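FORM 12-B: Structure-to-Sequence Request
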């Protein structure tokens, strides 16, 4: 329901602004630009789905092997003490907890191509537990908020972009991103728990969240001892070694349980193809709305209004130049990436705005894209409190990114 209102608002606001530009400013280019954006966004949505087909087939095939080989059940048992409190509506030891863990682990390692199919598999399993097939359940929402909060330990792609844009130290945003994304995820868990009346003040959750904080601190310290070249090599190597280890471990588990791993893979791969086809309409809907909103100039007006308010309140407006990245990130990952590159091009890769744009890019994830793809893959229409929880996590990440950037740079 919330996505419905937001989708309508994007088009209505964009149309009103474009009409005002035409009537009062004589801007005859705005409507052609908006129409062009609808065609381009539709094409992009299809290309994304097409590009996902192979990756989905691969990873859902691997997941099917892991499921039949007992790996997913083993992960479920290990994670049960935490997940039974964070996802109280999921039956204890259910295989979906293993899928959720694999998805979150892939996101933390910056392995987006692996995370999406793993997440779609988890949503499929959560939907099997859903008594109302068109309405999001509490576990679905908690799972999506964990995704939209964007917890990332190794922001490889952002460091690569900074290197390409001529940054003197491409890895200088690593620690700030790690801190900002941690606060975003923590805020997402707390806000969603309040909505769902989940008690986090118990020994298991306190030790888990405290352990995460200690782990984050250890990673920050460890990578802080490396220079930029070593950091890039270690980050890339660790991510890829872990990914290949997972694939081989799943296959060996299947062999150990004497299953036909090839047939299991083919069965899972077929699910990947059908899932990629199912999400096309949902992607077209959300990306076209975002494209029209951006082409109308509405995004520029929002940024200008924020700058005026901050200046009127006597605040420092240095961060405003990076806000397009922050505001675009919940809507479109590629759009936010373009905003980040534009900020580094305009202000410089090592400028305050350039660095802050990179931290924005790494501190949260594409909330509406994730909601559209994940909910769309299982036919969820009533998203309940998923949007406000996801956006509040994004807001926490944005605020943390601004404060941390001022602290560091």
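FORM 12-B RESPONSE
SEQUENCE OUT:
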């Amino acid at each position: 329901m919330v996505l419905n209102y937001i989708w309508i608002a994007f088009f209505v606001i964009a149309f009103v602004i474009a009409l005002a530009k035409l009537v009062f400013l004589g801007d005859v280019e705005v409507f052609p630009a908006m129409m062009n954006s609808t065609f381009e966004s539709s094409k992009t949505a299809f290309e994304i789905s097409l590009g996902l087909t192979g990756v989905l087939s691969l990873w859902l095939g691997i997941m099917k092997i892991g499921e039949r080989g007992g790996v997913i059940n083993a992960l479920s048992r290990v994670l049960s003490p935490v997940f039974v409190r964070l996802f109280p509506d999921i039956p204890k030891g259910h295989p979906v907890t293993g899928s959720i863990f694999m998805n979150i682990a892939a996101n933390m390692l910056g392995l987006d191509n692996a995370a999406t199919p793993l997440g779609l598999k988890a949503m499929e399993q959560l939907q099997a537990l859903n008594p109302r097939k068109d309405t999001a359940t509490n576990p679905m929402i908690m799972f999506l908020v964990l995704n939209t909060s964007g917890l990332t330990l190794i922001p490889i792609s952002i460091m690569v972009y900074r290197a390409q844009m001529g940054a003197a130290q491409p890895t200088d945003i690593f620690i700030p991103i790690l801190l900002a994304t941690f606060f975003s995820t923590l805020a997402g868990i707390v806000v969603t728990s309040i909505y769902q009346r989940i008690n986090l003040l118990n020994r298991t959750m306190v030790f888990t969240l405290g352990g995460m904080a200690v782990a984050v601190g250890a990673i920050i310290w460890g990578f802080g001892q490396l220079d930029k070249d070593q950091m890039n090599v270690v980050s890339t190597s660790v991510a890829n070694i872990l990914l290949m280890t997972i694939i081989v471990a799943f296959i060996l588990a299947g062999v150990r349980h004497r299953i036909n791993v090839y047939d299991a893979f083919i069965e899972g791969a077929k699910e990947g193809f059908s899932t990629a086809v199912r999400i096309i309409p949902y992607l077209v809907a959300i990306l076209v709305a975002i494209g029209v909103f951006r082409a109308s100039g509405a995004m520029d007006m929002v940024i200008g209004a924020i700058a005026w308010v901050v200046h009127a309140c006597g605040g420092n407006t240095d961060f405003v130049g990076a806000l397009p990245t922050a505001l675009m990130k919940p809507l479109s990952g590629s759009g936010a990436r373009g905003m980040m590159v534009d900020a580094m091009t305009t202000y410089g890769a090592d400028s305050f705005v350039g660095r802050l744009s990179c931290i924005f890019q790494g501190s949260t994830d594409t909330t509406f894209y994730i909601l559209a793809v994940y909910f769309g893959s299982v036919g969820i229409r009533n998203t309940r409190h998923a949007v406000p929880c996801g956006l509040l996590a994004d807001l926490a990440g944005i605020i943390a990114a601004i404060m941390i950037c001022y602290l560091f740079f």
